[in-house]
Model the fold of this input.
Amino acid sequence: MTGPLRVVLIGAGLRARKVYGPWLSGRPPYQDQPVRALAVVDTDSRAAREVAAHLPDAAPARPQDLDRILADGPDLVVVATPDASHYDYAAQALAAGIATLVEKPLATTTEDAFALVHADAASPGRLLVGHNLRFTNLHRKVHALLTGGHIGTVTGADFHYTLSASHTRSYYTRWHRVRAASGGLEVTKACHHLDLLAWWLDAQPSAVTAEFERRHHLPGTDGIPADADIHDSLHALIEYTSGATARYTLTPNAPTEGYTCTLTGTAGVCTVRYDARSGPHTVHLHTGSGGGTPQQVAREDGTHAGADHRMLTALTHVLRQPPGAPAQFATPAEAALAVATGTAMYDSSRRGRRLPVPQPRTGEPR
Done:
């Protein structure tokens, strides 16, 4: 592939404006990125025009124009629409043989996520998923420590995420508040963390036991729309094929946002503290030779603690490599498992018992 990547952006919402717009327009820190926007597609024609106006050569378009646009053979389609529409747009792009980057989560249901795994396998295009937290300096450092055997074989994890009060409320006043649109916090938010855990543990989730609660922002009160139906407090025990287990919690209305994760191995313990607002983050290793001084890891500038910049920089390199070349991105199967784990957690809570996590290889194409 030579010349700039020719990109079709589907979605003209907040994510498109904050992340993909600057990337496609070459604004800092993307001055050297070889990309060019061909079209901005959205159901809201005004929003599409507003985003396209800042992108040289990009035309606003409607979803019904997409087949015509794809027939012109763009190099990449970026799907940055509300979660429940990811499947339809990604499947359409893959069917046209176009490389596709889908924002996390891959889909909102296990069925749709697994169907996209099959669509990727059948397409001459390739499917990449924007699990951007894999790209932060902190998370890459933790991954390197674990794969380097610094605490031996990881046998367990405790991952506790606190969601700030303002962020909690935002989920109940935007489209995320309806499970059918977002998959609930167990998919739209927790997929970040579920993907990190599986990546760090280098294992597939196999079963979950979960309990969900609705503690805050009840529908019809305090300005919360009556159709808000998602839970805000998540508690789960996740089992993995390696024999490891992870306890996962998401707690709302906290004064700060971030997480603490303790990873226990056969030769030590690694404690990670992630500050989602300001930083610095810390990594503390306790090994058989004693506990060292916690290492501070700076929070990088930019959206998602610098993760988006790293991800989009990596994207242009990945698309110029042959299919099958190593990539930092979550694979479609890994992204589908993050969705399947979240939906299995919801089902486990609703049914009151331990449930298996379905595996992509057992899913059937539609």
About this structure: The two ends are 32 Å apart (CA to CA).
